Amino acid sequence: QVQLVESGGGLVQAGGSLRVSCVISGGILSNYAMGWFRHAPGKEREFVAAISWNGGGTDYGDSVKGRFTISRDNAKNTVYLQMNSLKPDDTAAYYCAARLGSGVVVRRNEYRYWGQGTQVTVSS
Q1: DSSP string covering the chain, please?
Q2: How far apart are CA 19 and CA 21, in angstroms?
Q3: 63-78: pLDDT as tens digits
């Protein structure tokens, strides 16, 4: 059974940086396209970033382009989301998602496996 576990969330001041991680178990990371989504209270779950199986392709949501970077280390079974220039609007629970396949996947309903989320809070 594939499981995803996020970590690295926390409280940070506006303008600061944070890196969240996602470790996959029960599967080989290189077999999966990976993505990050976020969910803030009162809002729909939002696409943040996605990465292809080998990191050669990436895509980002409009609200995070130029500030966030997704990467992966298949040898460590880990995907990362580096978040810079954080804003209070970035406050949300951040979820890692996985889908068997090689390409960049941006649609939420195409992902099969989800983590439990890690909370990121940005203070003004």
Answers
A1: --EEEEE--EEEETT--EEEEEEEESS-GGGEEEEEEEE-TTS--EEEEEE-TTSS-EEE-TTTTTTEEEEEEGGGTEEEEEE-S--GGG-EEEEEEEEESSS----GGG--EE---EEEEEE-
A2: 7
A3: 999 999 999 999 999 9
Residue 1, Cβ density class (10 Å: 0-12 exposed, 13-18 middle, ≥19 buried): exposed
How far apart, in Å, are the Cα atoms of 25 and each of 3, 32, 74, 108, 113? 5, 12, 12, 21, 11
* Strand order from edge to edge, sheet including 18-25: 3-7, 18-25, 78-83, 68-73
What amino acid is encoded at 87 in this protein? K
Encoded amino acid at 109, one letter: N
Q: How does pLDDT run across 77-112, given as a tens digit for each residue?
A: 999 999 999 999 999 999 999 999 989 999 999 999
